[in-house]
TrEMBL record:
<keyword id="KW-0547">Nucleotide-binding</keyword>
<dbReference type="InterPro" id="IPR036890">
    <property type="entry name" value="HATPase_C_sf"/>
</dbReference>
<keyword id="KW-0067">ATP-binding</keyword>
<dbReference type="InterPro" id="IPR011495">
    <property type="entry name" value="Sig_transdc_His_kin_sub2_dim/P"/>
</dbReference>
<dbReference type="GO" id="GO:0007165">
    <property type="term" value="P:signal transduction"/>
</dbReference>
<dbReference type="GO" id="GO:0016020">
    <property type="term" value="C:membrane"/>
</dbReference>
<keyword id="KW-0418">Kinase</keyword>
<dbReference type="InterPro" id="IPR003660">
    <property type="entry name" value="HAMP_dom"/>
</dbReference>
<dbReference type="GO" id="GO:0005524">
    <property type="term" value="F:ATP binding"/>
</dbReference>
<protein>
    <recommendedName>
        <fullName>histidine kinase</fullName>
        <ecNumber>2.7.13.3</ecNumber>
    </recommendedName>
</protein>
<dbReference type="Pfam" id="PF07568">
    <property type="entry name" value="HisKA_2"/>
</dbReference>
<keyword id="KW-0597">Phosphoprotein</keyword>
<keyword id="KW-0808">Transferase</keyword>
<feature type="domain" description="HAMP">
    <location>
        <begin position="301"/>
        <end position="355"/>
    </location>
</feature>
<dbReference type="GO" id="GO:0004673">
    <property type="term" value="F:protein histidine kinase activity"/>
</dbReference>
Length: 571
């Protein structure tokens, strides 16, 4: 039953693990479909985001070109040659009506400000600026992505028209300033994240003007080649000045020499581009987790807890308490009820079998006790017959031989008596056996004349009949020898001692007689004692007794230690 309980515990753990794995595998396709859909949606949104960046860059470049062209027409309309008291007022009125222009300025032939719609910072090197030199050299229109200190508010781009006097000599320029912020695309588009910045780069990819310089890093070194190859917008990814990952999109602004560059944050751990696929994956993940938890909970309530209950019942059965019945399993599912009924029937079968085995064992014990009793009675009958025959003999030697035989048979009968009267049919307690055997041998000595006092000491030991028989017969020979040679005429003291010293045991029988300096004579007694010692794998020693007589010692290996016998119920 203990083995059944251990198996039940292992079965419960195995069922839980296999059930969890089975449910996980069953729900795995749902999770895989959700993850796949989320991945496709993420790829789609990423493509749309890149397209949005490209469109935004192209839109910014188109807006800048349109305003530059409009600025050229406006400047020509204003009349670059007109400079007067109303110049500043007229330019300010035009700037206030047209959005996107930060300033309108009239420069003279030396690059000095003749009049302007707004405050213009002083620039001593303006006459040496490339755009100013181009106009002085005869160019009609010049665009300066780096106009110098023309507008102090924020990064800007300048468009200038050549001014001439009546003789066609260069007389300065009429310029319009457009801020980069006015070219920045709107971020209302959901594919365009917050933090998008705009800048201007040259054909070598160097960003020289930007709304947020830290949002730009080394641009693509092949802007001119890619633009000349027919690409209207160029898209790449890289790191900004602060080492952050960003996406860049560029579009040509001025004859593939100046590019509008748009910078947007790349998808990060907490960015919307990652939150979007995560949010798409959350429903299938949540559904997977809820379904798994729900099925596990239902299984725990419907199956596992009942198996645990049956395991507890099996543990009680393992302790030998088969009267407990699994009554709570009546509320369990049909399969569990059937298992509980099977377990109950098994327990009932074990109880019936145990009762039958106990009855059979009790009957067997009774038969064995009866057999031992009858053998003992038969041996006693033989002893009585020998006793009668001994009395009829007149020869002393014959009487002595008959007496020795009778005492040996008495020892064997005492063994059977100890077996059927004792609590265990297979073991005998050695201490009371030696006491009774010594008393019987002394009481049956018909030739003894003196009074004999016995002293019996035995360490506790439970021994089996196979070892008890040679030990008892050895004791008979030693006690008989003491009676004949030391105690028969004058009486005396007879000691019977049994010691257990670890792996060795010793039976010592001594007397206070005259002793035998040369040892006992060669005869049947000594031959039998040597034979009995060999049966016990021991040896016989003849020593002088502390009382002055002879001490016969039998030293042999200690029999295997057995627990003390217990009375069996019903016996």
């Amino acid at each position: 039953m203990k083995r059944v309980y251990g198996r039940a515990a292992k079965v419960v753990g195995t069922i839980r693990v296999r059930l969890a794995l089975t449910l996980a595998l069953a729900l795995l396709p749902v999770l895989a479909i959700g993850v796949g859909q989320s991945y496709l949606a993420f790829r789609s949104e990423g493509d749309a985001r890149r397209q949005s960046l490209e469109l935004a860059a192209g839109h910014s470049a188109a807006t800048a070109r349109a305003r530059i062209e409009a600025a050229g027409v406006l400047l020509q309309t204003l009349g670059p040659g007109s400079v007067g008291l109303e110049c500043a007022r007229r330019l300010d009125a035009v700037k206030s009506r047209l959005p996107g222009y930060a300033n309108l300025i009239r420069f003279d032939a030396y690059g000095r400000v003749a009049c302007a719609a707004g405050t213009t910072p002083r620039d001593p090197e303006r006459a040496q600026r490339p755009w100013f030199l181009d106009l002085a050299a005869g160019a009609h229109l010049a665009v300066a992505p780096a106009p110098g200190a023309v507008y102090a508010g924020e990064p800007s781009v300048l468009t200038a028209v050549r001014a001439e006097d009546g003789a066609g000599v260069f007389d300065g320029a009429m310029a319009a300033v457009l801020t980069l912020s006015s070219l920045k695309p709107q971020t209302a588009n959901r594919f365009l994240p917050d933090g998008a910045e705009i800048g201007l780069a040259d054909a070598r990819g160097n960003v020289f003007s930007a709304t947020a310089p830290q949002a730009f890093g080394p641009a693509s070194a092949h802007l001119r080649e890619e633009a000349e190859a027919g690409q209207k917008t160029i898209l790449w990814s890289g790191k900004d000045a602060q080492g952050r990952r960003r996406l860049f999109s560029a579009a040509p602004l001025v004859e593939d020499d100046v590019f509008v560059v748009l910078s947007a944050p790349a998808p990060g751990l907490l960015s919307w581009a990652n939150l979007s696929p995560i949010s798409r994956m959350l429903p299938p993940l949540l559904a997977f987790g809820l379904a798994l938890a729900g099925v596990l909970w239902a299984t725990e309530r419907a199956v596992i807890r009942w198996i645990v209950y049956l395991r507890r019942v099996a543990a009680i059965y393992a302790k030998g308490r088969f009267t407990v019945r699994p009554l709570q399993a009546e509320r369990a599912p049909p399969e569990i009820r059937e298992l509980a009924e099977t377990l109950d029937q098994m327990a009932a079968g074990i109880v019936t079998r145990d009762a039958s085995l106990r009855d059979s064992l009790a009957e067997k014990d009774s038969l064995m006790r009866e057999i031992h009793h009858r053998v003992k009675n038969n041996l006693q009958i033989i002893t009585s017959l020998l006793n009668m025959q001994q009395r009829a003999l007149t020869d002393p030697a014959a009487r002595t031989a008959m007496n020795d035989t009778r005492q040996r048979i008495t020892a064997l009968a005492q063994i059977y008596r100890a077996l059927y009267q004792g609590p265990d049919l297979k073991r005998v307690d050695l201490r009371p056996f030696l006491e009774e055997l010594t008393a019987l041998l002394l009481a049956g000595d018909v030739n003894g004349q003196g009074s004999v006092r016995t002293e019996v000491h035995a360490d506790p030991l439970v021994i089996d009949p196979d070892r008890l028989a040679p030990l008892a017969l050895f004791a008979v020979e030693a006690i008989t020898n003491a009676q004949k040679h030391a105690l028969s005429e004058r009486g005396g003291v007879l000691t019977v001692d049994f010691f257990v010293r670890g792996e060795e045991a010793e039976l010592a029988i001594g007397d206070d007689g005259p002793g035998a300096p040369a040892g006992p004579g060669e005869g049947v007694g000594r031959t039998l004692m040597t034979a009995f010692a060999r049966q016990l794998r021991g040896q016989v020693k003849f020593d002088a007794s502390p009382m002055g007589g002879l001490l016969v010692r039998l030293v042999f290996p200690t029999p295997q230690a057995l627990p003390p016998p217990q009375h069996q119920a019903g016996t």
